[in-house]
């Protein structure tokens, strides 16, 4: 069976980066990123060190259970932690009108913004999801205020589907209104990727 031999979260390389599974040594970088209010502006709150520790444990678990979970971006050579990018099955997908789904997402240390890192990593994950895993489509969503994240979706050639209310945030929450983008296998092929 193909499913049995494909590692859904393999070590991938791009021109500048290594994309790999989470390891215990990633905790300090993850915690630094999650504690930074500039990085966490469009999330409900910054995370404490302990909260990042449980997030790392959850992500390592999801890698085992679902085969994928936003994976680490590290710099080739130095192996420095830069952030994460990858595919993930949202834990709350039954509450999403467009679920079940696989999403693509990203988060970078603030010093690493403006270098094309998220786009380069996401291009590799899109190709892996649509060509190797043969997913029909990959979605991405972000609060309507998060223009930097939306620009990544646009640079990837994803289609803007519309807006929706995030089901896991209470009514009136500043981040409730979100924008939804999608890349289908057909659209991807139509853009000349082979
Ligand atoms: C969302 C986020 C990953 C976007 O980061 P980003 O640096 O803007 O996006 P990229 O890594 O793709 O880099 C693109 C930028 O680098 C520039 N760039 C510089 N060198 C480049 C290169 N070699 N290749 C491509 N782009 C390059 C681009 O021109 C672009 O600049 P611009 O923003 O002025 O248009 C980042 O803002 C972030 O981590 N935010 C916090 C977490 C978050 O909100 N995640 C999304 C939640 S849904």
UniProtKB/TrEMBL annotation:
Q: Which SUPFAM superfamilies match?
A: Acyl-CoA N-acyltransferases (Nat)
Q: Kindly give the Pfam families that the UniProt entry links to this protein.
A: Acetyltransf_3 (PF13302)
Q: Which UniProt keywords apply?
A: Transferase
In terms of Gene3D superfamilies, this protein maps to: 3.40.630.30
Q: Does the keyword Transit peptide apply?
A: no
Annotated N-acetyltransferase domain residues: 17-186
Q: Kindly list the organism's lineage.
A: Bacteria, Pseudomonadati, Pseudomonadota, Alphaproteobacteria, Hyphomicrobiales
Q: From the Swiss-Prot or TrEMBL record, give the protein name.
A: Protein N-acetyltransferase, RimJ/RimL family
Annotated organism of origin: Pseudovibrio denitrificans
A molecular function (GO) term: acyltransferase activity, transferring groups other than amino-acyl groups
UniProt entry tagged with the keyword Transferase: yes
């Amino acid at each position: 069976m193909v499913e049995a031999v494909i590692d859904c979260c393999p070590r991938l390389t791009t021109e500048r980066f290594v994309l790999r599974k989470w390891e215990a040594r990633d905790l300090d970088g993850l915690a630094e990123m999650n504690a930074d209010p500039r990085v966490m502006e469009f999330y409900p709150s910054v995370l404490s060190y302990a909260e990042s520790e449980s997030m790392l444990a959850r992500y390592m678990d999801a890698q085992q259970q679902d085969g994928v979970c936003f994976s680490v971006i590290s710099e080739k050579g130095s192996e420095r932690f830069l952030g994460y990018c990858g595919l993930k099955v949202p834990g709350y997908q039954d509450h999403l009108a467009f679920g079940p789904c696989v999403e693509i997402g990203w988060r970078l240390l603030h010093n690493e913004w403006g270098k094309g890192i998220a786009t380069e990593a996401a291009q590799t994950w899109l190709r892996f999801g649509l060509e190797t895993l043969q997913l029909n489509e990959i979605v991405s969503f972000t609060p309507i205020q998060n223009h930097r994240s939306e620009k990544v979706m646009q640079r990837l050639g994803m289609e803007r589907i519309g807006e929706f209310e995030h089901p896991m945030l209470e009514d009136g929450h500043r981040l409730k209104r979100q924008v939804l983008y999608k890349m289908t296998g057909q659209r991807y092929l139509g853009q000349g990727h082979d």
